[in-house]
Amino acid sequence: MFTLHFLDEKLWFPPYHLADEQGLLAAGGDLSVSRLLLAYKKGIFPWYQGNMPLWWCPDPRFVLFPENLYVSKSMKQVMKRGVFSFTQSQAFGEVIWHCSKIERSDQDGTWISNDMIAAYEKLHEMGVAVSYEAWHNGQLAGGLYGIRMGNVFFGESMFSRISNASKATFIWSVEQMKKEGVVIIDCQVYTEHLESLGASFISRQDFLEIIADNIGNE
Q1: Model pTM?
Q2: Rounded-to-integer distance, Cα 130 and Cα 123, Å
Q3: pLDDT tens digits, residue range 24-67?
Q4: 114-125 and 92-100 are packed helices; what angle lies between their axes, rounded to 10 degrees?
Q5: CA atoms of 86 and 109, how far apart (whole Å)
Q6: How does DSSP classify residue 203?
Q7: Is residue 43 within 8 Å of residue 217, measured between CB atoms?
């Protein structure tokens, strides 16, 4: 029988195998830098429900190995034509704000609360949270953000204001990460959008072993 663990001010998480079938592991606690860094090192990520953070570690895990990135013929043309220009961590605040405003058919409101934004902006100031941006005619057209620890990138959210902007940003970001030695990109849970770009499922155990080998002592 599943028992939901409630966190207090103590810095800890229950063992991942105690998560329920959807990957829910714990609730409560805070979004301090220390807790967030500990969570990601353990393969755990937060989503908000109401005023309480929920902590997840799903099995299987949806990931992309950079070498498996799939770029369709149409997207190759988009990239070749230079429809967008790209930057890294030049508009982190704007990216996370736009991500928080996306209307999602399967969710009632956003899970990117003001507390989440504040917490990830602190991580960005530390150089841990990064963003990738696509620009079109000088305007922010799309982007994504996530956590970079060692050779692992934990993707959090992406947005698009015009057609193909989020796909183009993702493709460019993966190509950059590949050059930098990133070995795995955590996509957290399944989306058809990311599957079309080459993401697939691996077991939670395999995922945790990979990140343990590639995060180091951060």
Answers
A1: 0.94
A2: 8
A3: 999 999 999 999 999 999 999 999 877 889 999 999 999 999 99
A4: 160
A5: 29
A6: -
A7: no
